[in-house]
Specification:
- The protein is α/β, with parallel strands linked by helices and about 525 residues long.
- It folds into 3 domains: about 120 residues, Nucleotidyltransferase, domain 5 (2-Layer Sandwich); about 190 residues, Exopolyphosphatase. Domain 2 (Nucleotidyltransferase, domain 5, 2-Layer Sandwich); about 200 residues, Hypothetical protein af1432, CATH 1.10.3210.
- It is about 50% helix and about 15% strand.
- It is built from 22 helices and 14 strands.
- The strands form 4 sheets. The chain has a 5-stranded mixed β-sheet, sandwiched between helices.
- Helix 14 packs antiparallel against helix 16.
- The longest helix is centred in the N-terminal third of the chain and has 21 residues.
Length: about 525
């Protein structure tokens, strides 16, 4: 059936304005669990080249992006769709490093009606997670072994460690194919930088990766990325196998280093926009592979861009598996800073009960719920520095840590909620808080008011209040503590910490002992 004969199909489109190309995937989602590809369009685009080599997007690049997107929309119209068909339109996270990123986004919006969303680091990590989850299904051995996943992007490299199929560590580094070129391009044409120069420039960051993961006894290495997956057919020995030898990767690097742009395009069947970053991406991946002294590694043969577009519509939704990985990462961070695990997890449990019981009041979404649980787990990490003003130290440590699946904005929210779990409530002049939008300041106040009450209920650090029942009136939030008949300590704490809840929601907070216990005494 031709594309023109499909207008009755349930169409969904995803658009990605990436580092080296702009692409769109159109699928039939009549069966949401099994989307069927209808068409895939991809056009070269030099965003990364402009951003890293010129610090801004050239006018020609901006207008080319407009032309490409208009072409995408025309194609959708032929299929019977329109602007509403595009469920998600995103652009590479390196756009934030362009000095004219705001004018670029404005131009795209005015010319095409599409408001591009900049992928942050947390969102890219989610997309990588979704891709890796498929790898776990396709490669059963990854569920039994210790596997390090490496993604070398245009500006950053991400490392995710899996042990028996579960994420146990995540880190990112300012090491990327275009970032490397940016730093060493002087004296060389971009496509003529010798591999040895790239290696020497990147060695310190690669050594850092090796240092941080050398004790993890890595058994398998999986590398993904736009450039390396484009070349998977040149690296793998068998068309249906993703395993390659280190020697095969080295040979491809040797061949590529002797080619000019035209030869690379013809030999590797790539666009000219990919040639500047190709060699650097291959060299960095080879360096990382050598660092772990493995004889082989895996490179997925699937198309990187198409896989990203396939996952885009589902990425913002919080699957239970993904949320569990985020919370596991938060727990690892809390353990690193020697927090009291039973206390932190119990505060998280009480926060969850309070959040769910007051949904109609706070009007927050599942994403906020996850951030609240993360903040509950890590709210006392600042005690590692000092018990005095530990809430402020918690903010500092959280802002300077990485939590799997959370971008900079999410980490900032978590840090502020932890910072306001005790002592002063948020004030307009407070550093970091004052820089938030009005909407995000309200979110912080709502989430912090909940964690303050939960922390007051866990005042004794004994986990004695396990279940609560909540009853709301227009002026009061009444909390009944099931199984508890003496709330002296908790009532004192509530008097000190319920102020933010009252200011935010206009409701006083009161605690009630279990009436069944009172009547039986």
């Amino acid at each position: 059936m031709s594309e023109r004969e499909r207008p009755s199909a349930t169409l969904t489109a995803s658009v990605h304005i990436g580092a080296s190309s702009a692409s769109m995937l159109v699928t039939n989602v009549s069966d949401p669990s099994h989307p069927v590809e209808i068409s895939f369009l991809e056009q070269p685009l030099p965003l990364a080249r402009d951003i890293f080599l010129e610090s801004k997007l050239r006018r020609a690049t901006v207008e080319r992006t407009v032309t490409i997107i208009k072409g995408f929309l025309a194609h959708l119209k032929e299929l019977g769709g329109g602007l509403e068909t595009i469920k998600r339109a995103v652009t590479t996270n390196i756009l934030v490093e362009s000095s004219n990123n705001d004018s670029f986004l404005t131009r795209i919006s005015v010319a095409t009606g599409i408001n591009l969303e900049i992928l942050d680091d947390g969102e890219m990590t989610r997309l990588i997670y979704l891709k890796t989850r498929r790898r776990l299904r396709e490669t059963p051995s990854m569920k039994k072994r210790t596997t390090l996943l490496i993604h070398v992007g245009p500006g950053n490299t991400r490392a995710i460690l899996f042990r028996k199929g579960k994420i146990v560590r995540y880190t990112s580094y300012r090491l990327g194919a275009y970032r490397a070129i940016e730093s060493i391009e002087q004296g060389f044409e971009t496509s003529e930088i010798p591999p040895g120069v790239i290696r020497r420039h990147c060695q310190a960051q690669v050594d850092q990766i090796r240092y941080e993961y050398q004790k993890e006894e890595v058994q398998d290495l999986v590398i993904i990325g736009y450039e390396v997956q484009h070349l998977s057919s040149h690296l793998t020995l068998k068309s249906n196998d993703s395993e390659i030898s280190i020697e095969a990767l080295k040979q491809v690097i040797t061949r590529a280093s002797k080619m000019n742009d035209d030869q690379m395009v013809n030999h590797f069947q790539i666009d000219y926009e990919v040639t500047p970053s190709l060699l650097a991406a291959l060299v960095i991946n080879h360096q990382i592979t050598e660092a772990f002294q493995l004889s082989s590694l895996r490179v997925p043969g699937s198309d990187f861009e198409k896989g990203l577009l396939l996952d885009l519509p589902s990425s913002p939704s919080l699957s239970q598996d993904f949320s569990d990985e985020v919370l596991r990462s938060a727990t690892i961070l809390a353990k690193k800073y020697q927090t009291h695990p039973k206390h932190s997890l119990h505060v998280a449990s009480l926060c969850e009960q309070l959040f769910e019981a007051t949904t109609e009041l706070h009007q927050l979404d599942p994403r906020d719920h996850l951030l609240l649980k993360v903040a509950s787990i890590v709210h006392e990490v600042g005690g590692y520095i000092s018990a005095r003003a530990h809430h402020k130290h918690s903010l500092y440590l959280i802002l300077n840590s990485e939590i799997f699946g959370l971008g900079k904005k999410d980490v900032t929210m978590v840090g502020l909620v932890a910072r306001y779990h005790r002592q002063s409530a948020p004030k307009p002049g407070h550093e970091i808080y004052r820089d938030l939008s009005q909407q995000d300041r309200i979110r912080v106040c709502k989430l912090a008011s909940i964690i303050r009450i939960a922390d007051a209920l866990e005042k004794t650090h004994s986990q004695r209040i396990k279940r609560i029942e909540v009853h709301m009136t227009p002026q009061k939030l009444k909390i009944t503590c099931i199984g508890i008949h003496d709330l002296t300590a908790e009532n004192m704490a509530i008097q000190q910490k319920s102020d933010l809840f009252e200011k935010t929601f206009g409701m006083k907070v009161s605690l009630k002992e279990d009436p069944n216990l009172i009547s039986s005494t």
